[in-house]
Amino acid sequence: EVQLVESGGDLVQPGGSLRLSCAASGFTFTHYWMSWVRQAPGKGLEWVANIKHDGSEKYYVDSVKGRFTISRDTAKSSLYLQMNSLRAEDTAVYYCARDGWSSGYYKFDSWGQGTLVTVSS
Amino acid sequence: DIQMTQSPSSLSASVGDRVTITCRASQSISTYLNWYQQKPGKAPKLLIYAASSLQSGVPSRFSGSGSGTDFTLTISSLQPEDFTTYYCQQSYSTPRTFGQGTKVEIK
Question: What percent of chain A has pLDDT over 70?
């Protein structure tokens, strides 16, 4: 069974930093792209970043470029999101999602339970 | 960036009704379109990928269609557990954008 378990969410002051983790199990981690998707309270879903199987390619939504860094550790089957210079508008539940692939189509086919990041003074 | 627009933003329906939700892309995305269901306080769940392919384990009352810029998600006979929020998402290009969501409520 595929499992994704996020951790690291917390209350942080504006301008602060936080590192989110996602522990993956039940599948071959090195075969998949992985993504972070967030959801502000009462709002819709927003894709944040993704990373290739081997970590050689990384992509970000414009609003987090230069502030957030996605990374992965193959040995630990873990995904990370380092978040710096946090703003109030980064307040959200952050989900780790597997970028499943089928016949040329990508899809977020497995999700973690989410971890809440609150940016407030 | 490709903008995804869902309509309606909300709708009221009854158990057993046939419901259709529309998603429009700001440019052609071929069939690179996914649909998700999200229940309150839970992670989204993949329903449909590649515009019309049913994800494993998803009930057959859910179906998707469309290509280019216009897509639909249809629930053939609403069940009590289907009253929740649905999102479309394009996988044609990065950033992977979502629609704003459609909330299906009980009439």
Answer: 100
